[in-house]
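As the work plan foresaw, the team has encoded backbone shapes as discrete tokens. One protein thus recorded appears below exactly as we store it.

:::
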Amino acid sequence: MSSLHSIRPWRQIDRRKSRQIMVGNVPVGGDAPITVQTMTNTDSSDVAATVAQVQACAEAGADIVRVSTPDESSTKALREVVKESPVPIVADIHFHYKRAIEAAEAGAACLRINPGNIGDATRVREVIKAAKDHGCSIRIGVNAGSLEKHLLDKYAEPCPEAMIESGMDHIRILQDNDFHEFKISCKASDVFLAAAAYQGLAEITDAPIHLGITEAGGLTSGTIKSAIGLGNLLWSGIGDTIRVSLSADPVEEVKVGYEILKSLGLRHRGVNIISCPSCARQGFDVIKTVEALEKRLEHIKTPMSLSIIGCVVNGPGEALMTDVGFTGGGAGSGMVYLAGKQSHKLSNDQMVEHIVEQVEKRASLIEAEMAAEAAE
């Protein structure tokens, strides 16, 4: 989509200018792609289970994975998790600053600390020293559900102003200690509260911003809340890295995060399926076909588009805009489109296998073209 901005300016998103930091070998902020994060939900002291989940999330497209480190056994295990992980690991720290120091020593790429429960400035300084000594970045993770008592006393309830003040107080502590490799988040389960806090924060700091609607809910409700909250902020140019918080498999968080970014043209990975909801006009079972194709095409990482439309009302028009398309017709067959052009008729009973084959061929062609351009 980005290549079409010059002729379709209504697709343009002007990203907020932020500093760039490194989370391990992954750049966050500046002109770097917006990264997708998730968090493991295994017992962090179980190395095998945690590594397996990290790898599954990375395979789904996660750029960064966070691991909770609530006790010494989990920070000890973290060393092995880091060694086996294909992506940078963020250590999630709450309540005990010593866990942050242990996590830095274990090789964490970033330390996530919560201003509301990490302790006083002295303890934060010890965390900063550990981060400096071991090359970690830091995420200041403000959360509406765990604001400092003095801010709740001042503002009476969690509000955007309290969240912004909490974040800026900790930014000052980091900067006063000559530490600048940090990003910040100000999450809330309330979409309005989170959005307002992020908008205010974005105006007064150039730190990279980590977006999230915390405790968003289950797969369906959480996806909707996250799409509304994160989508609104991303559309306005705010956000350098995102995490979708769902009461679901972390792999689902990654998938939803990518779909949000793909819908805005901010990241492109895998097959973007454009399909109709189906109706009495459909020439084949659209819903079952799309379900089958989603599973069969999970292995495709190449950015490309596929339209699966049940009839000729919108099918040909959508197919003109996609890499591969199939439009339902009559007599048990439909029309295949390749690179936006009508190609050949196909029997419905051969549809899934044939479309998978065509997508794989198109993906190989796109990869070859990208490699040729890179070599010039």
The CA atoms of residues 323 and 362 lie 7 Å apart.
